[in-house]
Amino acid sequence: MPMLDFLTIPLFQKALIAAFLSGAGLSLLGVVILNLNLTTIRFALMHIGLLGAAVAMILGFSPLVGAVTGIVIASLLLGPAGDFLNMDTGVSGVLFMTGSLGLAFLIFYKAGVPAMDAFALFSGSILALSLFEVWVIGALAVLIIIVFCLFYREIQMVLYNQELAESLGVPAKAIRNALLLLTGLAIGVNIRMVGALLIDAAVLLPAMAALILAKSLRSALLLSALFGIVSQVGGVTFSMAYDCPSGASITLAAVLMVILSAVYGHVTKKIRK
Amino acid sequence: MTHQAVVEIKNLSAGYGHHQVLQQLDLTLRHGEALGIAGQNGAGKTTLFKIILGLLKPQKGRVSVLGKTPDSAQTRRLMRRQIGYVPQLQTPGKMPVCVHDAVMMGRWGKGFGFFRRPTEDDRRKVSEILHEVGISHKHWQEVNLLSGGEQQKVSIGRALIREAPILLMDEPTTYLDHGSQAEIIELIKTIRLKHELSLIMISHDPEHLEAMSDRILLLKNGRLEER
Residue A262: which pLDDT band, with cuts at 50, 70 and 90? Predict the structure, then answer.
C-alpha cells in the first residue's frame, strides 16, 4: 500500500500522532533519568507495574490500570524512600524492583493469577492505542513541556548539583520528586506504546543522543525532543511501509540516532582539534 | 574585623543515624574573620558545613547565623541567603552548563526565583563577577571543559554573586595544580577584603589554610582544637 494511503487510515493516524507527542514531550524525561543517575529506576517501575497488574487482576480491574497506578505510587515513594534510607535514589530503586517482583510472583502463585496475562504488558503496540490513550499521551506531553518551561532554571540547578541547589535555597528534593512522578507517568504511558522491554528506546535513547551533542540543558531538551520525534515517527512510518513490528522499528530508529550523534560528535571534535 | 559573632555554634553533636561525626563542638566566627579548619578526610569537615547551611539537622546543640537559628524552613531559607557556599571541586557531571548559567545559579532567591526569570540586572551582575574572578573570556564556555582552577573560579563567582556576608569554602585548593592553587589563594585574599567577607575554609592541607586564614582550628575526633 502506498505511504499516503496509510495516512488516511485512523489507526495509523492515531499511531503517528501518539508517536509525535511521545517524542516531543516524554523523551525530555530521559535527560532527567540520565543526569540524576536513575537508570535503575525504570526497571524498578516496570517491575512495580507488573505487581500492580497482578493486584489489579485479583481485584478484577484492567492490568494496565493496575500497572499505571502502581508505577505512579512507586514514583511518589522512590525519592522519600532514598532519603529515609540515606541512599542514592537509583540504589533505593533496586529495593523496589526486587521487592515488587518477589511480591508479584507470590501473588501469581497463591492467587492463581495467570502470570502470562500480566507479562503481556511487557509487549505493547502503538497501533493498539485507543483515542483516549492518545489524549492521555498528549496531555502528559503538554504537562511535561509546561513544567520544563516554567521551572527551567530550578530543574537545571537540581540536575547540575542537587546539594548545591539545596544550599542556594531551591527546594531540590520537592523538584526531584516531581520529576520522578513525571518519569513514572511517562514510563507507564510508554509501556502501552512500545512495551516495557523497549521503554528505553522511547525515553532514554533520544536523551542519550542529545547529551552527546548538547552544550546546555536547553539544547539537550530541544535535541532530545527532536530525536524523540524523529525516532518515534520515523520508526512508526518504517513499520507501516515495510510491515515490521512498530516497537522494534522505533527502538532501532532510536539506536540509529545515538550512533549518528556519536559519529557526528566524534567527527566534529576531530575537526576542531 | 569587629567582635560581632556572625556564626555561633554551641555544644553541637551531629552525624548520620547512629554514626556520630561531630561531638559537643563549639565554634565562633567573627565579622570579617577568615577561619581555617584543618582535618583529615572523614573528620567531619563537610558535615559541619551541612549543619551551618541547614542541610543536616544537629542531634544536639545550637547553631546560629547572624542571629538566626535553623528552627523552621523559613529561617533556614533566611540563613542560606546570608551564606555563599563553594563546594568541593567535583568530577564533571553529564549535564552541560555554561559558565554564565553556572554563576547565575547564585542569584536564585536573591534576584530571580520561582516564576521570576533573571533580569538585565542579574545578567549585568554575572558579567561583573566573571570579570572580577578573571574568567570573563569564558562566559559562554561549558564548565565541564574548563581547567580545575577555572571551575573553582566559577564556584567562587557563584558564591560571590549572592552578595552574602559569609562564605563557606570546602577544600578550595584541593585537586588543583600549584599555579592554580596560588591563583585561588590570591583571589580569596582579594575578595575577602573587597567584599568584607567572613570566611570559613576547610581543608586537609594546613599549609594552604595558613596562607588564607587569620586563625586555624583542627577538627579531630569530632571536636575543634586550637592548633
Answer: very high
Q: pLDDT per residue over B126-153, tens digit each? A: 999 999 999 989 989 999 889 999 999 9
What whole-number distance in Å separates Cα of residue A232 and Cα of residue A126?
10
Q: Which residue shows C-alpha cell 542531634?
A: B59
CA distance A33 to chain B (A): 11
Chain A residue numbers touching B83 (CB-CB < 8 A): 167
pLDDT tens digits, A36-87: 877 777 778 878 888 888 888 888 877 778 888 888 888 888 888 877 777 7
Does B11 lie in the same domain as B78? yes
Q: Residue A169: which of B80, B94, B117 has the nearest Cβ?
A: B80
- Residue B10 is part of which domain span? 1-82+164-227
**Residues of B at the A interface, defined by Cβ within 8 angstroms:** 16-17, 53, 55, 77, 80-81, 83, 85, 87, 90, 93-98, 101-102, 104-106, 108-109, 112, 114-115, 117-118, 142, 162
Do both B173 and B209 map to the same domain? yes
Number of independent structural domains in chain B = 2
ipTM above 0.90, yes or no: no
Instruction: Indicate the DSSP class of residue B32.
Output: T
What whole-number distance in Å separates Cα of residue B224 and Cα of residue B227? 9
B90, B96, B109 ranked by CB distance to A220: nearest: B96
Question: Which residue carries 538566626 as its cell?
Answer: B68
Cβ–Cβ contacts within 10 Å for residue B204, how many? 16
Radius of gyration of chain A (CA): 19
Query: Across the strands, what pairs with B22?
Result: B14
pTM: 0.85
Beta-carbon contacts below 8 Å between A and B: 78
Q: Name chain A contacts of B101, Cβ cutoff 8 Å.
A: 156, 216
CATH class of A3-197: mainly alpha
Tell me how far apart the alpha carbons of residues B80 and A152 are, in angstroms, rounded to a whole number: 22
Residues B78, B1 within the same domain:
yes
